[in-house]
Design goal:
two-stranded parallel ribbon; 2 strands
Length: about 170
């Protein structure tokens, strides 16, 4: 009877071990920083953003200059001239806000450019992680780059270098 119970216990343990879920993690920030095309795309986006910010800043500087000139000249202007200057200032400020929205709004040029340059790289990473998950029979693969808090991670379960290798990059 003891042998039968021992065999049953061993069988139960082996079934539990064989059906145990496997977990791993990757650091997408680390992966992205080791992909040259991502670095290049990010540099392009940074330069584009800086150029657009400069252009918008210059427009706001012009609005400020016009407003100060208006304040200095206000006592000398007729009502019609005041109205004309105020309209000019308001129109320039609106144009600056419109341009800012065009470049940096939710569906703006920066968003579109980011989609064009970065999304294909992110899709490649996702597909590589998915392949590793299927091939390695992982139930869950976490990303430690985001806000996910992990108090301890065993480097043995870090698949970041495997993802880079699958994408054709060596680190």
């Amino acid at each position: 009877m003891k042998k039968l119970a021992l065999i049953g216990f061993i069988f139960a343990i082996s079934v539990a071990v064989s059906t145990a879920q496997k977990y791993a993690y990757v650091d997408t920030e680390y992966i992205l920083n080791n992909i040259p095309t991502y670095k290049s795309a990010q540099s392009q986006l940074d330069k584009l953003s800086a150029d657009w910010e400069k252009e918008i800043s210059e427009m706001y500087t012009e609005v400020e200059r016009l407003y100060k000139a208006y304040q200095n000249d206000a006592v000398l202007l007729t009502q019609e001239m005041k109205k004309q200057r105020e309209d000019e200032i308001v129109n320039k400020e609106k144009a600056a806000k419109d341009l800012q929205s065009k470049y940096f709004g939710p569906e703006g040029e920066l968003f579109k450019k980011r989609q064009e340059l970065i999304k294909p790289i992110q899709d490649e990473i996702y597909n590589a992680v998915k392949e590793l998950a299927v091939d390695g029979n992982y139930a869950v693969i976490f990303d430690t780059a985001g806000s996910l808090s992990m108090l301890y991670t065993n480097p043995r379960y870090d698949l970041s270098d495997d993802v880079l290798k699958k994408l054709g990059y060596q680190n």
